[in-house]
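To: structure subgroup
Subject: Chain for Friday's discussion

All,

I'm putting the inputs and outputs inline so they're searchable in the archive.
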Amino acid sequence: MIEPATEQIEIGGRGEPEAGHTRRARLLALSGLGIVLIAGLLLAMAQGAIAASFTIAGVAGKLSADRFVAQGVAQYPAVERTEEAAVPVFTSGFRQAQAANFCFSVPVGDLPGVGPVVLRIATPGAEGFQADNVLTTAEQIDGDLVQRNVELGRDAGELDKGPADATGRPGGFGQQSDTLEATNLRIVTRSVTAGTLRLNQARIALGARERECY
């Protein structure tokens, strides 16, 4: 039996280069990032799963799914700090999650001679995306949501239905539920992490012709 690959995947970056750095250096760094990212993803998926942290940093991406189902849900507000600003986000943790027709996209940058470049990852079918111990931070969430056995106003520091690290500031607002189901889900996300990520029949593309998920 082949063991799942373990990868640390980061998409995006924090801030612009210091004054005096050339656009060529930025182009090379971004190009290298895309190559390493895709190679790591393809290697891991060829072995069946990614036992990994899947993250984006400092850049807002878009995530969509026709249907999203999660068990063990914890949610609370937080602040994500970049070099430029502090961004308020809504953090959601899920012990287990799966999605139908899942799509994730993030703008890599506007490259000289190429134009705007987008990284897009899409999986077809009812269970194309499966993950454990998921943590997302979002600027905006749209969709039709149903949660069961909801606890509203729970101390964010005492949330215990989501992943172990899905807790917020003690004394702050939190909510949790046994399950969450969403249809026509659309999220503007600042970061996504998953303990184990499985992408079935995934299409991974990086280029100027790629479009964001919505």
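Points worth raising on Friday:
The longest helix spans residues 23-46.
Residues 48 and 180 are 26 Å apart (CA to CA).

D.
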